[in-house]
Amino acid sequence: MTPPSGEQFELRHGAQRVVVVEVGGGIREWDGVLDGYPVDAMCKSARGQVLAPWPNRLDGGRYEFDGETYQLPLNEPPQAMHGLVRWANWRPVARAEDLVEVEHVLHPQPGYPFSLRLTVEYRLGADGLTVRTSAENVGDRALPFGVGHHPYVARHSDDVFGPGEKHDEAHPFHGEIEIGDVTVWADENWKWVQLYTGDERPDVARRCIGVEPMTCRRDAFRTGEDVIRLEPGEHWAGTWGISP
Fold first, then answer.
1. At CA 22, angle to CA 103 and CA 142, rounded to 5?
2. Residue 118: closest CA among 100, 99, 101, 104
3. Angle ∠(2,11,31) on CA atoms, nearest 5
4. Radius of gyration for the chain, computed over Cα atoms and rounded to the nearest angstrom
5. Does a cis peptide bond (omega within 30 degrees of 0) precede residue 73?
6. Can you list the domains of the chain with their CATH numbers?
7. Which of 168, 144, 147, 137 is nearest to 240 (CA)?
8. Over the stretch 175-193, which tens digit does the pLDDT of each residue have?
9. What is the pLDDT of residue 176?
10. I want to staple 208 with a disulfide (CB 3.0 to 4.6 A). Which of 62, 125, 152, 227 is the partner?
């Protein structure tokens, strides 16, 4: 039987083990480091997912680009949330014991009539997990782009922030952030990091912390802030990672 998250890509380095999945191209499991989900379950609360071609919320799903107005489907009304690739199939294009690179081509669709090739390389090493995300405009006109990732660090919110302190906001990302004994780091392409204690979601509430590297924050397609413009044939790449 095929798991709900599709094919499973296992990475190993010494005693460490990470599982990346076909559906959404994200991280399903990293024992002791990330709060994941079982192999026989669908992903909930965006655990480990890739968020593209925009991360976070887009209120109303409406935006303008190059003088045209677009309306995206509202997958979490009244918002278009976390992009269009969370439930798409990603195919492996490189495999090794400690590495997998997955790819998805996002074809034109209502609200986003652009062509975008996305690849994510996950590499597990002595210093943890390194993730390289890249994008290429494979269409014939410029497109708007943003990306994020949604790992939940398996550390209790009360222990990290203090009892009952809630978080659901973006902060400027200055290269790294410590969540207990786990460090999430990123290069200069990831300008923002969203912290999320998930208090309104029973499956994650306070038992873990969403730490989301993002190139842009909430409503970026609407405000234009930090949206990346990719011309036909243009590439973008950024690297982030987790060190336990």
1. 30
2. 104
3. 85
4. 17
5. no
6. 8-153+221-243 (2.70.98.10)
7. 147
8. 999 999 999 999 999 999 9
9. 97
10. 152
